[in-house]
Write a structure and sequence with these properties.
This protein is α/β, with parallel strands linked by helices. The protein contains 14 helices and 13 strands. The two termini are 23 Å apart.
Amino acid sequence: MIGFNIPPMVGNEEKYVTEAIRNHKICGDGEFTKKCSNFMEQKFNASKVLLTTSGTSALEMAAILLDIQPGDEVIMSPYTFVSTANAFVLRGAKIVFVDIRPDTMNIDEKLIEDAITEKTKAIVPVHYAGVACEMDAINEIARKHNLKVVEDAAQGVMAKYKNQYLGTIGDIGCYSFHETKNYSMGEGGAIVFKDNNYVEDAEIIREKGTNRSKFFRGQVDKYTWVECGSSFLPSDINAAYLWPELEMADEINNNRLRAWNIYNDGLKELEEKGFIERPVIPAECEHNAHMYYIKAKDLDERTKLIAYLKENGVQAVFHYIPLHTAPAGLKYGRFHGEDKYTTKESERLLRLPMYYNIAEDDVKYVVSKIKEFYKV
């Protein structure tokens, strides 16, 4: 069976995890946490990057930092993981969903402004599959209406928009290092800041609402509870697992891109003959090969294709059920405008096996079985 995902492992994970244990610093902000944060700050030209316990907790920190209150509204795509919405629902916000673009599966930036009300506080663009939303337009709308922009770049580590790394373009960026992501620490994430406006408050929130970070830097002689917060700081053991992957960040990225391109080239004929659609990468976007997906004709065809691939030893999966159709989405959110593309496109999308060091022959085998299904 060619599995859908295998978490990345490059060779030094056990060595570095053992080092973290022997350093007797297995809680947060140890040597490996600092190495990971410093790498991302320099690589992505970010003012500050703080590791978190998950991409979810990074989003929850962002909601606290923006002081989201009950009754506030937050605009986002319905085609995303539940964490994007949950982070703001936990603060009492109403989620306002707008339709997606069928080309990138990202929020349609042209529909955002019409969804803004006097209650709107933030826009949360989700960079689906590591392909950037139209950030210039989104930031312009946010400036015009005095809104904040939180980038859900969970899938976007190492990807770019107009030569800027995703996560560093809005007011706050959020990464995920879950085992399904390009770079993994098992469970983990990061919150990213392009300037220092939120950094001091973020350090407090991340350390359970205390000024403990200042204490360890010698800026205060004792630390105390100063604000609302939670335990968003990951173990240094997790960071030790992530660090060797960041040391090889470009190599991992290029490895995934090679596999992505084999899929894309191999499936070109099927698209040209009208059987499927392949991913669209706008000219201003530099993606990170987070996933490779195709779109079948409709839900029925996708279901049959998934079954056919499974029979032939290939695990292919569909992705999100649009949040606005879910029970919690109906309870905590509303859809503004027409669902022209979100549901229809989500029912067609099929994700193919994609991970670091997937064998070239395996990718070609998957392509051959898809062609076999369509009798090409």
